[in-house]
Each structure stands twice: as structure tokens, then as C-alpha cells.
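Field log, afternoon session.

UNIT: design team B
ACTIVITY: writing a sequence onto a fixed backbone
BACKBONE:
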């Protein structure tokens, strides 16, 4: 009887948590979200005042120095402006990386939205112009509310091609890679920083004798039946990682961070839960995500947009077709058509009339901005819902603990009176 009652209470609590969303209860969800943010800021401020007074003082001094440099006029203004551009450039790409990995799998896919297209556009432009010195400065990249200056320039403005052969421009991978690696590494550093909140929260829960919410859900899901092949497969991988937690070390974390891995959030939670040292976790994650994984992604995109990959595919295709009887006579025609298609794809775009170009630019920009804003709104909604539900769960747990303590006190008083 007590078991059935406890099960009903658990189900009602779970239903209450699931119903707390911006679509079903917007005002209550926003109120809990604001309260959770207030508690977090209050706790962080008290912690800094108690243990990091010197850090607060140093931060205030740096802020005052920056304000003075920005407001006071003088010959240093151009240097301050240049430094501010580098700072905005670094913060922009790091913030995109953090947004990509934070949120326990609900992060914004900024590689697909920003870094990937940036590398692809630069590679194609380099192939069209036959040179890689396209940027006016290292920070001349895609940023908020503006694009790179080199994107709309014609190849004649950069000068004659520096890389050219009889088959057209052929820019080597080793020349393109240094031109885009700074923003890619900054993005990778951001993805590593975005993995820290689950680690810290799980570690704090472990030190207080509790389990992180994701670990509790994983333990509970082991007793439930999963629907769907993908969900079942992912749960099996999660349970395998949990059962092999004793093998978590620098090398294991490095391997998990170096490949596209949707379950790395779970690895970070497990590292915090089982007491993996912070620097061991962070350094392995930083090396794996900011360098190994980032370079793999850069090389892949550059190769996809590069003549060299197209030439290799063409040669392999012609070599395979050469073994088919009767196709030898058609191979020259097929080769010519492949060359024509490749030249058309990599050719510099023709200049359009201003009225037509304006219409096309407006249409593409509107569609792209709409997609980005929809993804940002979805990301914000997920963060608000998760934060509010976590706050409500803590309040319900506190209420249950208070009820149990009150019941225990009443039981002790009854026993003493007897």
C-alpha cells in the first residue's frame, strides 16, 4: 500500500515537472527561471566575496583601466580600437563554441551555422582567386551583424593568382589551413568551456552525497523499456560508459573529446560524479576539442570544397569505369563534362545588376536570419524550461525532506510520551 502511494507521488511529481514549460505554464516557468538565476547569482557573489576577494579587486581594477582607456582621447585610441576588434573576435568565436556544447545536448549547432560555412566560403573564394591572402586582418571573419570584407570583393582586387596550374587554381591544403585555424581553435576552446558546467554540477552533487539529475535519470531508465531503435542503442552506450567508469582517465577522455560524440556530456557528468581531477578532465577535453577534433573538421571541409578532392574523385571514377567494357570510347566525353561542371562550380560569380543583386541578397539574408533566430529561440526555450524544472525539482525535494523530518519528529515525540 505504501509502495503504491509512493509510486503515485513520484508519478504526480514527474507529471508536474513535465508540465512546467513555456508553452503550458509560461508565467510560472518564467518565475521559477528568474528565481533560479537569482539564487545562482547570489551564491556566486557570496562565494567570490568569501574566497576570491583578491580576484574581485583585480577585476574591478581591470574594468576601471579599460573604461579610462576607452573614454580618454589620445594617440592610443587607434590601438585601443584594434585591441577591441581582436577581443570582440575572440569572444564571438568562444561564445559560439560555448553555445554549441552547453545545455546537455540541447546546444545551438554553431558549427553548422557559422564556422563550417565560414571555412567553406573562404576555401571556395581562395580557389576562385588562386590566393589565400584575402583577409584584411585575422579578425576579418563572420561576426554578429556583419560578414567578412573579402566575401563580396572581386578577385581582381586581390591581385593575380599566386597558385595556378594548367588546370586552374590549385591552392594546397597547407596554405588554406593557417588562414582559418585561429577562429576554429577559439571555437574549439569555447566547446571545451561549455563542457565544464555539467562537470562542476555533478562534482558538487557527488561531494554533497547526492547524484546529479542526469545520473539519477540514467539509473532510473535502466529499469524502463525504451521505445525506438536509436533510443535503445544510445541507452546501451550510456549504460556501457557507466559500467566502465573505472577506465576514465586522461587518454580515455581525450579520445572521447577528439571525435564527434553526442554522449560526451555524459562523460563529463561521470567525471564529476566519480572524482576525476579538474585539470585532468579540462586539459584532455581542451586538447581533444580545440585541436584534434577541430582540425579534423577543418581538413574535411577544406577537402570537400577543394579542387584536389574533386580531382581525386574524378580520377578514381575514371579508373573504375575504365574496367567496364564498352565505356572506353565515352570516357573522354565524360571527362570533358566533369571538367565543365567543376569549372562552373568553382568559377567566380558574375556581377549582377544592383536591383537584382539587392533582391537576391535581401531574400537570402532574410531566410538565413530567420533560421538563425528560430534556432536561438528554440535554444533559449530549452534553457528556460530546464532551469525552471530543475528549480522546481529542488523545491519538491526540499518539501519531501521537510515532511519526512516533521514525521520523524512527531514519531519520536509520540514514543517519548508513551
Amino acid at each position: 500500500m505504501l509502495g503504491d502511494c509512493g509510486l503515485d507521488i513520484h508519478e504526480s511529481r514527474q507529471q508536474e515537472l513535465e508540465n512546467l514549460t513555456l508553452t503550458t505554464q509560461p508565467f510560472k516557468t518564467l518565475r521559477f527561471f528568474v528565481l533560479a538565476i537569482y539564487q545562482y547569482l547570489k551564491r556566486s557573489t557570496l562565494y567570490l566575496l568569501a574566497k576570491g576577494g583578491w580576484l574581485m579587486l583585480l577585476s574591478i581594477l581591470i574594468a576601471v583601466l579599460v573604461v579610462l582607456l576607452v573614454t580618454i582621447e589620445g594617440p592610443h585610441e587607434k590601438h585601443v580600437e584594434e585591441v577591441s576588434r581582436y577581443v570582440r573576435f575572440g569572444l564571438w568565436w568562444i561564445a559560439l563554441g560555448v553555445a554549441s556544447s552547453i545545455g546537455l545536448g540541447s546546444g545551438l549547432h554553431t558549427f553548422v551555422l557559422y564556422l563550417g560555412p565560414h571555412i567553406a566560403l573562404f576555401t571556395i573564394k581562395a580557389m576562385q582567386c588562386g590566393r589565400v591572402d584575402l583577409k584584411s586582418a585575422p579578425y576579418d571573419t563572420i561576426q554578429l551583424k556583419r560578414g567578412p570584407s573579402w566575401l563580396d570583393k572581386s578577385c581582381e582586387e586581390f591581385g593575380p593568382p599566386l597558385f595556378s596550374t594548367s588546370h586552374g587554381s590549385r591552392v594546397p591544403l597547407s596554405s588554406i589551413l593557417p588562414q582559418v585555424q585561429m577562429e576554429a581553435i577559439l571555437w574549439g576552446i569555447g566547446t571545451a568551456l561549455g563542457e565544464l558546467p555539467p562537470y562542476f554540477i555533478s562534482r558538487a552533487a557527488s561531494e554533497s552525497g547526492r547524484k546529479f539529475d542526469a545520473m539519477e535519470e540514467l539509473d532510473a531508465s535502466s529499469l524502463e523499456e525504451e521505445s525506438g531503435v536509436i533510443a535503445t542503442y544510445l541507452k546501451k552506450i550510456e549504460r556501457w560508459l557507466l559500467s566502465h567508469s573505472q577506465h576514465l582517465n586522461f587518454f580515455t577522455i581525450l579520445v572521447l573529446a577528439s571525435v564527434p560524440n553526442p554522449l560526451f556530456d555524459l562523460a563529463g557528468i561521470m567525471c564529476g560524479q566519480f572524482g576525476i581531477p579538474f585539470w585532468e578532465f579540462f586539459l584532455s577535453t581542451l586538447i581533444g576539442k580545440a585541436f584534434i577534433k577541430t582540425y579534423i573538421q577543418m581538413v574535411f571541409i577544406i577537402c570537400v570544397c577543394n579542387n584536389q578532392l574533386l580531382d581525386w574523385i574524378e580520377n578514381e571514377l575514371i579508373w573504375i569505369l575504365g574496367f567496364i567494357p564498352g565505356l572506353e570510347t565515352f570516357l573522354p566525353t565524360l571527362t570533358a563534362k566533369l571538367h565543365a561542371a567543376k569549372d562552373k562550380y568553382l568559377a567566380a560569380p558574375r556581377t549582377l545588376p544592383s536591383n537584382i543583386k539587392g533582391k537576391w541578397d535581401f531574400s537570402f539574408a532574410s531566410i538565413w536570419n530567420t533560421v538563425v533566430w528560430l534556432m536561438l529561440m528554440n535554444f533559449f526555450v530549452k534553457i528556460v524550461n530546464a532551469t525552471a524544472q530543475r528549480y522546481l525539482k529542488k523545491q519538491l525535494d526540499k518539501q519531501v525532506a521537510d515532511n519526512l523530518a516533521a514525521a520523524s519528529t512527531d514519531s519520536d515525540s509520540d514514543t517519548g510520551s508513551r
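LOG NOTE: The longest helix spans residues 354-417.
NEXT ACTIVITY: expression trials, pending approval
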